[in-house]
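Renewal narrative, Specific Aim 1. Our central claim is that a sequence can be written position by position from structural information alone. The example that follows is taken directly from our test logs and has not been curated for this report. It begins with the structure tokens describing the chain, in the order in which they were read.
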């Protein structure tokens, strides 16, 4: 079976230092990088020297006949337009996170795939780079939930504040942390992974109420600090807290069901297991202050999974017809919708019911872009003489991290 000919679109940090490097170092098998694309021609010369086809226009690469599949690693808005084009041309598509900036664009991207005939879809792989699904902690949590070992969901808390970023990071590209160039901040750039895992484990909430702070800790116009309350069918609640302005930060996931509590933090996963489900114990005991006895279980977990390389390998294997996808791209709409709902609630000060209107959010985003452009610059000048970034471009082929 011949190798899949892959085209990488976007040669920023994630496209080269991660995906291309993983292929070059042999961490992904059955694939060759046959083409690369970036609007910045200076980034192409090292690849041209290796006899890899180079392009400055994604449409040319997609129609070149050089590649069987594309990996889209551009800034976020271009995920939709390039993805739709590649799908219509019959290529296999792997999209970096998020699959789109907002729900309406997710719907457009997914609609392009679903518009293909069943026979075409069967032969065409459409995947997302949700590498956290390879983490054995989350895989084990999902198994325990699906097997009923945790019982009925009561509460979920995720504190994910170890995304600390400096002012230098935000100044490194004009598209970063702008409504026009990136479409948001921590919810769009860093947290799609956690939002995907949260949906993957617990399902979508029915309502989200959030506080989203714009430029709270940085000289940026988008959100860098968010706390959201999630309401689920059946009465369970959740709290999701994230920030790029906290160091050293925390990454702690706690899920409580009627049969116990799971905690994932660092490299560990613990399960405090009720011997009797809490609701059964409460209804049957005659003691007012009693608690069900528990088993304290340290679940052995090694490492954090294959991450980006494993998702890319799975995509290549699916293209060759030898594996089912770990992360179908159609799943990507859920994390986007949750992030959009958090931001919309934070901006309006009102709860947002799910499913939300993708077009309503898109209108709100356009207002934010217009207000930013009307101000005459894409970043706030908090300090006199501070260097401002170059104007944002939705097509700027920089890193998507």
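The sequence written for that structure reads:
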């Amino acid at each position: 079976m011949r190798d899949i000919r892959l085209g990488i679109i976007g040669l920023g940090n994630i496209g080269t230092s991660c995906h291309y490097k993983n292929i070059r170092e042999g961490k992904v098998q059955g694939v060759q990088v046959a083409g690369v694309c970036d609007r910045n021609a200076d980034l192409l010369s090292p690849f041209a020297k290796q006899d890899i086809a180079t392009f400055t226009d994604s449409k040319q690469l997609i129609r070149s006949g050089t590649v069987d599949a594309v990996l889209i690693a551009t800034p976020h808005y271009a995920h939709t337009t390039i993805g739709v084009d590649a799908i219509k041309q019959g290529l296999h598509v792997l999209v970096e996170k998020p699959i789109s900036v907002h729900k309406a664009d997710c719907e457009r991207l997914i609609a392009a795939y679903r518009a293909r005939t069943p026979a075409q879809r069967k032969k065409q792989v459409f995947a997302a780079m949700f590498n956290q699904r390879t983490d054995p902690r989350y895989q084990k949590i999902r198994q325990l939930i699906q097997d009923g070992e945790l019982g009925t969901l009561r509460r979920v808390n995720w504190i994910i504040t170890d995304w600390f970023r400096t002012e230098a990071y935000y100044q490194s590209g004009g598209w970063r942390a702008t409504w026009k160039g990136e479409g948001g901040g921590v919810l769009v750039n860093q947290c799609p992974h956690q939002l995907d895992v949260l949906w993957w484990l617990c399902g979508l909430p029915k309502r989200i109420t959030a506080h989203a702070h714009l430029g709270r800790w940085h000289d940026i116009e988008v959100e860098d600090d968010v706390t959201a309350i999630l309401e689920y069918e059946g009465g369970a609640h959740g709290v999701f807290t994230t920030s790029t302005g906290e160091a050293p930060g925390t990454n702690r996931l706690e899920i409580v069901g009627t049969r116990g509590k799971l905690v994932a933090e660092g490299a560990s996963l613990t399960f405090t297991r009720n011997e009797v489900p809490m609701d059964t114990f409460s209804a049957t005991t005659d003691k007012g202050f009693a608690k069900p006895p528990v088993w304290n279980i340290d679940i052995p977990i090694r490492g954090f999974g294959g991450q980006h390389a494993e998702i890319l390998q799975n995509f290549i294997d699916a293209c060759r017809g030898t594996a089912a996808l770990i992360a179908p791209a159609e799943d990507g709409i859920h994390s986007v919708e949750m992030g959009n709902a958090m931001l919309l609630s934070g901006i309006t000060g009102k709860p947002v019911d799910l499913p939300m209107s993708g077009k309503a959010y898109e209108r709100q985003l356009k207002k934010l872009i217009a207000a930013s452009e009307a101000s005459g610059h894409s970043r706030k000048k908090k300090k006199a003489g501070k260097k401002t970034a170059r104007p944002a471009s939705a097509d700027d082929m920089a890193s998507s991290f």
